[in-house]
Design brief:
By secondary structure, the chain is mainly α. The chain folds into two domains: about 35 residues; about 70 residues, no CATH class. The protein has six helices and no strands. Helix 2 runs antiparallel to helix 3 and helix 2 packs parallel to helix 5. It is elongated and about 90 Å long.
Length: about 150
């Protein structure tokens, strides 16, 4: 029985069923909107997404964000380089653990804008990995978080 149905007949049948179904849904649930649309009572208001004032405000916000992002990124890069040199220097000077933590805390205090940055966890991971690399001290995530808090 199914071998007698061609793909064209199948496609026409399924398309007709879909058309009837969506016509029923439209009439059943959206009849008022359809009548208003075709009678001209309901005007379609196509407002522009932005007017001139909104465009200028959006441009100003973008420029402000871009400048802030560039500044934040630059500060983060400076902190990373500073941390690498501080950890290497502390290793050469063979500071005791308390002095080493205090030294790191002072450096972190110099960059307060990075404290609330989304890159803070990456910086913490960098501190931990650099300490392991140079053998300066064995710090974990909690120790590094305490260094940020001591820098307040």
């Amino acid at each position: 029985m199914l071998k007698n149905i061609s793909w064209i007949e199948y496609t026409i049948t399924v398309s007709t069923i879909f058309f009837i179904y969506y016509l029923y849904i439209g009439i059943r649930y959206y009849s008022d909107e359809i009548k208003d649309f075709f009678s001209g009572k309901q005007k379609q208001n196509f407002m522009p997404a932005f007017d001139a004032k909104s465009m200028e405000q959006a441009r100003d916000e973008h420029d402000s964000f871009e400048n802030h992002s560039d500044n934040q990124f630059h500060k983060t890069e400076q902190l990373i380089e500073r941390l690498k040199s501080v950890i290497a220097d502390a290793t050469k000077r063979q500071l005791i653990l308390q002095e080493f933590k205090q030294y790191l805390s002072i450096v972190l205090k110099e960059y307060p804008s990075v404290r609330y940055s989304p890159l803070r966890s990456s910086i913490n991971a960098l501190i931990i990995s650099e300490c392991k690399k140079y053998g300066a001290a064995i710090l974990n995530e909690d120790d590094v978080e305490l260094l940020w808090k001591e820098g307040l």
